[in-house]
Write a structure and sequence with these properties.
Helix content is about 0%, strand content about 50%. By secondary structure, the chain is an all-beta fold.
Length: about 120
């Protein structure tokens, strides 16, 4: 059974940093694209960042570009999200997700989420 387990969330002041981790129990982890989504209170879930199976190509939402960095360690079946210069509007539950690295695939595996709160 595939599981994605996020960790690293918490309370941080504006301008601070957090690093989220997502450990995946996927046997063929290196063949999956991984992504981070987030959902703020009262809002729909939105895309934040994605990384291709090899780790060489990344994509970011405009709202996080230049502040967040997604990375992965295929040897550890783990994907990370380094979040710098955090703003109150980054407050949300952050989810990692996985999809097979083929055209047209959907995100089929999701974690339970980790809360990030940016507040003074």
């Amino acid at each position: 059974q595939v599981q994605l387990v996020e960790s690293g969330g918490g309370l941080v002041q504006p301008g601070g940093s957090l690093r989220l981790s997502c450990a995946a129990s996927i046997r063929t982890f290196s063949s999956y694209d991984m992504a981070w989504f987030r959902q703020a209170p009262g809002k729909e879930r939105e895309f934040a960042a994605r990384i291709r199976w090899s780790g060489g190509i990344t994509y970011y939402a405009d709202s996080v570009k230049g502040r967040f960095t997604i990375s992965r360690d295929n040897a550890k079946n783990t994907v990370y999200l380094q979040m710098n210069s955090l703003k109150p509007e980054d407050t949300a539950v952050y989810y990692c997700a996985a999809r097979r690295s083929i055209v047209g695939s959907e995100y089929i595996y999701w974690g339970q989420g980790t809360q990030v709160t940016v507040s003074s």
